[in-house]
């Protein structure tokens, strides 16, 4: 995330610098064109659109190149006066075409005519136009400096794409002398003013110089002694000139040739200023890149340190996690052993309590006029019954594991049975059997008075199934499969109570050794949802 932000920031800065650089090139080109042809309606810092729109008719470009190389574009189609017919786009295109021919003849970077016609400008084409104009500027400066139309080194932005500069020929080379060292004697008249006419002035100045030296030598020859004549010619001329040039009539000449003189100051200094400003721009660019590099280096170091600290932290966490897992696995092992022991103890207890337990539930009297046959219920599970009409002869005592009175609830009955349900889940076989004569309350106890429709008075069957599902859900390490069969045995007929086909619900039961109903005829219903 941080890296992406850094890359985006860097790209943003680079793009912004590139835009500034392009704007600077346009500004240079526009300023130079204005200096050549006068104001032509362009702002100081023109946008790409403004720049191209101002040059689109080619008039400014043709005028500028004609100033440098008079007559190189012989016919320039100018803006038509208001009252006459306006010039066509084709005529303007002629201007551009002629200008480009002239530029190519000068072996300067060029651009495509279509670059000026595009509605959707791209930075590359506008940059090419600006580069072309700036190369003309350099050419003109060069020409001013050397007084010739020699080869030129044109300006190019360091950020401009290489393709934007269209080098016409390998022959384009640097001049042998640098502009700063040139001494242009021809541009200064006697008052030290600049002149556009270079060639004739140069010849005139050399002629003057020759005449002066000649005059000096003639005037001095009488005064020369034999020692002076023995000197070499260069020293001799130097001596003569140093003596004579102090005189008043030679001062303009001294001013003319002196490196400190105004004549040598103006134009070369302009070139130096121009070159200095370019160098300053490049220096600023370099400094910016250098500071960006330093910034990147610092960021890289920070990321490296962060990465190392994260690596160490990660290793510590892994080690700690390993210790924790070891502890947990030990605890889990101990827990499993404890659970296993607990189950064994529990089932042993069930066996101690008796594998077969018989409970007696006394049904309440259905009729208030009825007389109870129960005479006594003991705390040890004994019960004494008799025929109320013949109590002396019919008294009998029975012994049970537990006796539940007529007011005992369904929950109290189930609580005594519940411990066996857990043994089922541990793999023990359990059977809960209700036995008694008709109307004694077997269905009431096993299914509940509502037959499972109400959750208030559920019988043992439903409550046992609920516990089976609860325990199977809580034991995640064991997968239980719970199935249900429900049959009725009546008058020696077995009826499958869960069969949907009522015609075939009855079948004769087959008694095996274990007293089980033949399973093939009975339907297993898989149960997956608790009641
Ligand atoms: N503990 C009890 N409390 C209240 N009513 C009871 C109780 N036990 C049985 N009854 C009632 O006695 C009647 C007969 O009970 P039930 O149908 O359960 O007997 P049964 O043994 O299933 O009879 P059968 O063998 O004929 O099916 C029912 O109306 C039932 O509501």
From TrEMBL:
InterPro entries: CH_dom (IPR001715), CH_dom_sf (IPR036872), Kinesin-like_fam (IPR027640), Kinesin_motor_dom (IPR001752), Kinesin_motor_dom_sf (IPR036961), P-loop_NTPase (IPR027417), Vik1/Cik1_MT-bd (IPR031852). Residues 355-531 form the Kinesin motor domain. This is Kinesin-like protein. The keyword DNA-binding does not apply. Belongs to the TRAFAC class myosin-kinesin ATPase superfamily. Kinesin family. KIN-14 subfamily. Pfam families: CH (PF00307), Microtub_bd (PF16796). One of its GO terms (biological process) is microtubule-based movement. It comes from Triticum turgidum subsp. durum (Durum wheat). GO terms for molecular function: ATP binding; microtubule binding; microtubule motor activity. It comes from the Eukaryota. Residues 269-306 form a coiled coil. PROSITE patterns: CH, KINESIN_MOTOR_2. One of its GO terms (cellular component) is microtubule. Residues 23-141 form the Calponin-homology (CH) domain. SMART domains: CH (SM00033), KISc (SM00129). The keyword Cell inner membrane does not apply.
């Amino acid at each position: 995330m941080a890296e992406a932000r850094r890359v985006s920031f860097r790209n943003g800065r680079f793009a912004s610098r590139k835009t500034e650089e392009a704007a600077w090139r346009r500004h240079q080109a526009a300023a130079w064109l204005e200096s050549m042809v006068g104001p032509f309606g362009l702002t100081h810092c023109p946008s790409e659109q403004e720049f191209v729109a101002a040059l689109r008719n080619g008039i400014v470009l043709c005028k500028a190149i004609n100033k440098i190389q008079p007559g190189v574009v012989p016919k320039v189609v100018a803006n038509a006066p208001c009252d006459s017919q306006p010039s066509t786009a084709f005529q303007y295109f002629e201007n551009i075409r002629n200008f480009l021919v002239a530029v190519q003849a000068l072996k300067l970077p060029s651009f495509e005519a279509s670059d000026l016609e595009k509605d959707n400008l791209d930075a590359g084409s506008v940059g090419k136009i600006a580069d072309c104009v700036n190369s003309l500027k350099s050419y003109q400066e060069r020409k001013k400096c050397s007084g010739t139309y020699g080869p030129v080194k044109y300006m190019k932005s360091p950020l401009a794409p290489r393709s934007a500069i269209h080098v016409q020929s390998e022959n384009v080379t640097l001049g042998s002398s640098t502009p700063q060292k040139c001494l242009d004697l021809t541009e200064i008249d006697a008052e030290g003013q600049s002149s556009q006419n270079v060639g004739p002035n140069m010849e005139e100045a050399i002629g003057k110089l020759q005449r002066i030296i000649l005059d000096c030598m003639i005037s001095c020859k009488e005064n020369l002694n034999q020692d002076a004549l023995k000197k070499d010619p260069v020293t001799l001329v130097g001596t003569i000139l140093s003596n004579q040039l102090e005189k008043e009539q030679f001062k303009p000449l001294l001013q003319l040739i002196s490196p400190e003189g105004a004549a040598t100051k103006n134009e070369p200094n302009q070139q130096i200023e121009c070159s200095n400003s370019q160098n300053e721009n490049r220096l600023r660019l370099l400094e910016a890149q250098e500071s960006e590099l330093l910034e990147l280096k610092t960021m890289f170091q920070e990321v490296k340190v962060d990465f190392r600290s994260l690596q160490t932290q990660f290793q510590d966490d892994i080690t700690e996690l390993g210790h924790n897992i070891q502890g947990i696995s030990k605890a889990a092992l101990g827990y499993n052993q404890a659970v296993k022991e607990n189950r064994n103890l529990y089932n042993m207890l069930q066996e101690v309590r008796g594998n077969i337990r018989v409970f007696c539930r006394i049904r309440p009297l259905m009729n208030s006029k009825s007389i109870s046959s129960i005479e006594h219920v003991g705390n040890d599970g004994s019960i004494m019954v008799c025929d109320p009409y013949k109590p002396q002869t019919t008294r009998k005592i029975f012994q049970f594991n537990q006796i539940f009175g007529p007011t005992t609830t369904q929950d109290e009955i189930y609580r005594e049975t519940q411990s066996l349900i857990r043994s089922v889940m541990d793999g023990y076989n359990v059977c809960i059997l209700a036995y008694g004569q008709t109307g004694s309350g077997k269905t009431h106890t096993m299914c509940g008075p509502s037959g499972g429709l109400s959750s208030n008075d559920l019988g043992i069957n439903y409550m046992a199934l609920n516990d089976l599902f609860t325990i199977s859900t809580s034991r995640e390490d064991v997968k239980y499969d719970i199935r249900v069969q429900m049959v009725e045995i009546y008058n020696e007929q077995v009826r499958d109570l869960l069969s949907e086909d009522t015609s075939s619900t009855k079948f004769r039961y087959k008694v095996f050794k274990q007293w089980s109903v033949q399973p093939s005829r009975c339907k297993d219903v898989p149960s997956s949802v608790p009641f």
